[in-house]
Amino acid sequence: MESKPLVSVIIPTYNSEKTIGICLRSIEEQTYPNIEVIVVDNYSKDGTQKIAEKYGARVLQLKAERTRAKNFGLREARGKYVCFIDSDMELTRNVIEECVNLVEGDEKLGGVIIPERSIGNSFWARVRDFERSFYAGTEIESARFFRRDVAVKVGGFDENVIAFEEATLPLKIEGIGYNVRGRIDAVILHHEENFSLLDWLRKKFYYGGTALRYRARYSISNKQLSPIYRFSLFLKNRRFYSKPSLAIGVLILKILEYSSAGLGLLKTYLVERC
After folding, report:
1. pTM for the model
2. How many Cβ atoms sit within 10 Å of the Cβ of residue 134?
3. 87: CATH
4. Is residue 142 part of a domain?
5. Cα separation of 60 and 64, whole Å?
6. Domain tally for the chain?
7. Assign residue 155 a region: left if phi > 0, alpha if psi is -120 to 50, beta otherwise?
8. What is the pLDDT of residues 77-122, one digit of tens each?
9. What's the first-to-final CA gap in the chain, in angstroms?
10. What does the pLDDT look like over 187-197, one tens digit per residue?
């Protein structure tokens, strides 16, 4: 293990007892042997902390938004590499090993994309998984695995942006000359069994409040925001029409998402004008 560089996996949590055990068990079962787990918990009121400690994670308490929590974990990390995941994610067994092998072989590779699959039996979970399948190899995907020294050098995630916050760190790293488009084959399974459309749209409404800030600071990645770009990924791909019910579901979901984000943006604009 001493010859293998340490990888710090950083997980922000809040009332995550339903999924954190699955997440941490998947890290425990990785084929890569040298991993530390840092859980940055927003003072959960359920059993999140107890479960995390049971799996040997280092639990840090911080009342903060996700970006600040991730940056706090980044500063506390001891690894040569850092990987940021959510508490409802499950890593397939080779994720960390494939990331390390890829980065160790290329000194200019600063970030690695880990493909994601949504899992769950509900209609919307299947819609989300179908949607994700069209993002492979596009600018919609963002890296989750980074060289820690480079991530620290650029100041971590942008704490003033909520919309597409996961994209801010790789864009900052790319801005200093590193490649952040490395991609492995092993996948992350995103547990969305309890996906709530109403909660999802509320989140998009909240995120929409900083969408223009993201656009202004990271204009290189305006495709993240563009509904035209996203819809073109679906409508120009013949595979999209192979599953009509899921295709309709994707279109409805994206229209609702952009509408909710737009309303959130409008609210922020009106508040700032007043």
Report:
1. 0.92
2. 19
3. 3.90.550.10
4. yes
5. 12
6. 1
7. left
8. 999 999 999 999 999 999 999 999 999 999 999 999 999 999 998 9
9. 58
10. 999 999 888 99
